[in-house]
């Protein structure tokens, strides 16, 4: 049967001196495994929440000691505190980041639809589509404004929880949202005047634009479930008459 011994200063002195190096090596290996597991998880969270360089640098400053002193019992305690803090950041920041990312997927697909149909009036065989376009575009504005309101609320909720603006890769997304919303009043009939550069998650080259994929390591899902952080609002719905005008929104 396995027996457990609680080490103390008193009984530690009773061990044979020749055994102590092996014991110290074993204890070091155990704490090293625990601490490196924490470091890997925290780095994954940093990636998921699009932490800025300053945040990453602060964490890495704590993680840089890879000598035996960096894997002590006291260091393990410090790492637990860092881990707890970043799990809280994950729960607060992930829902708003993911909703805003999906919202931009909707906007990008809308822009692509506008480009594909900019000559709709002169194209042959488009009379049936043209009948529905005005109603479709009117509802696009409704969906857009409602999604902006949802994004603003999520941002405010997250900022209330973490006590500072939500930044994605160092950029305040509230400012991005303001730039996007400033485009809408100038858009009367199409979204062609909406600038691609106002899509924060945009990647790729002109003509082949896409929205960056979702970032979420499966090992982190359990923390989001703890706070219902996965129960975020649904992404923007397809506007009315999307089928009639051949518009389809697909979310990744």
Could you describe the 3D structure shown?
This protein is mainly alpha-helical and 252 residues long. It is built from 8 helices and 4 strands. It has helices spanning 9-12, 20-48, 53-63, 73-116, 127-130, 133-162, 173-183, 221-226, and strands at residues 167-168, 171-172, 202-203, 210-211. A hairpin with a 6-residue loop joins strand 3 and strand 4. It is elongated and about 95 Å long. It starts with 8 loop residues before the first helix and ends in a 26-residue tail after the last helix.
SSE layout and pairings?
Elements: H1 9-12, H2 20-48, H3 53-63, H4 73-116, H5 127-130, H6 133-162, E1 167-168, E2 171-172, H7 173-183, E3 202-203, E4 210-211, H8 221-226
Antiparallel strand pairs: 1-2, 3-4
């Amino acid at each position: 049967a396995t027996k457990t011994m609680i080490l103390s200063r008193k009984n530690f002195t009773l061990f044979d001196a020749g055994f102590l190096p092996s014991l110290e090596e074993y204890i070091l290996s155990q704490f090293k495994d625990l601490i490196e597991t924490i470091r890997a998880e925290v780095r994954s969270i940093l990636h998921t929440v699009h932490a800025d360089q300053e945040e990453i640098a602060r964490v890495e400053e704590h993680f840089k000691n890879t000598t035996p002193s960096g894997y002590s019992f006291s260091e393990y305690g410090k790492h637990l505190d860092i881990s707890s803090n970043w799990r809280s950041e994950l729960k607060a920041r992930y829902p708003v980041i993911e909703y805003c990312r999906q919202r931009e997927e909707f906007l990008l697909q809308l822009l692509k639809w506008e480009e594909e149909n900019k000559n709709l009036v002169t194209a042959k065989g488009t009379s049936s589509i043209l009948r529905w376009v005005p109603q479709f575009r009117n509802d696009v504005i409704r969906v857009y404004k409602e999604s902006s309101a949802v994004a603003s609320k999520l941002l405010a909720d997250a900022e209330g929880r973490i006590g500072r603006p939500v930044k994605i890769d160092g950029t305040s997304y509230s400012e991005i949202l303001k730039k996007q919303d400033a485009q809408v009043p100038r858009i009367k009939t199409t979204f062609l005047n909406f600038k691609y550069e106002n899509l924060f998650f945009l990647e790729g080259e002109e003509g082949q634009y896409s929205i960056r994929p979702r970032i979420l390591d499966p090992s982190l899902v359990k923390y989001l479930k703890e706070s219902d952080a996965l129960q975020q609002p649904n992404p923007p719905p397809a506007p009315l008459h999307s089928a009639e005008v051949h518009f389809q929104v697909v979310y990744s």
